[in-house]
Records
---
Amino acid sequence: MKRALAALALIATPAHADGFQTREIAFQALNAADAAQTCHIVGTGRGVELNPLLGRHPSCGKVIAFKAGVGVLHYLLADYFRDRDPRAARIFQIATIAIQGGVVTANMRLVF
């Protein structure tokens, strides 16, 4: 799992994201990595969830459902922006990739 998460973090960074679809895949990969990390961290008792919408000890099912919803909402917002202002879509995607990448990176200290 450690190698898979490290590989995801490496390939799903803004520096490798070129174009709408690639940026969206990068965000979704980081979103999935965050869900897997959260399930592992909370499930093993190594830490607690900091998102107040999930609570400190959410079930893995709750985390996955929440992250799936976030993923759908992210795509819908990015697609909405792309139709109206491609630059805004790019900024939105890059900003959310950076934020999600930071979360995944911070989680790494509790996964290993």
---
Amino acid sequence: MPIRYNIDVETGILFVNWHGEVSLQELARHWDTLLSDGAFPQISRALTDLRGSTFAFSTAEFWRTIDDHYRDAIALKTFKVAILLAHEDQEKYAGIWKALVPKTVTVGLFYDFDQASAWLLEDQDPEPKE
């Protein structure tokens, strides 16, 4: 599967790694699996690494999928997400995610792992330094 995740229950951090070409079906399968994981309610922070991935779907398809199927489930959570990027195409998709998630979710976009990690672990929610 091109999207893998691990939940560190002790710290409440979700680690997600995307690699290779990701289809819309694989993305939906990932979200369905994650949302049904018994440890999901314990997540307070997430580090999503998109750097090794490409998208086999349009930004419009991505928008519709999030809006139609996942925004309500995400709205039930309050958490902080750092998204690691390698190029501008990934930033377009991450920007859609950031625009659609509710105000209870703080999203930072980063090109540097150390900056993303430091921001994610801060107690406060300042604007990320990109």
---
Amino acid sequence: MADTSKTFDELITLFENNTSGSISEQDQRDFVESIFQYGGMRMLISDTPAGQSIGTSFIKLSQFTENALFSNFIAPAASTDTITITKGGVFATLISLNFSGSNNSTWEGSMFKDNVDTNTLQFKHKLSTGGDVGSVSVLDFSVFTDGEAIDYRLKADAAAKTFTLEAGSFFLIRIG
């Protein structure tokens, strides 16, 4: 039998009186399934700054490595720069980037789900002169289902601009 998440009230009813010893192994597994349905944070951080050529179409940000806190309900893969959802639900999503790049460039970012722009977790930021370091942090809430692949993409205001991620974090935190 599949493990089933239960509400708080259902768990209280189940466990409030077990004098008859009627709490089954399945009930215990359902309890574990219910209490561990939240959390699931994974952090991907740039290891060393390296320029990435970006043009006027969104391309995947590919400067992440796997530096994790823990990864319940998600499966990050630095080799593909994606995070796959292993248990759907409501997620708080956060991207935080510190970056440099080509002079007088406007950068846009957006989160993608299964290679489709979600039009969420977006930013637009302009770097003026050489040596500028831009900072953006964006928080949003998203609903994901099992098996969806999540990534973050960037585009520039002109062809062949250089984007260098100085430091960055991409979080997905299951909250419901």
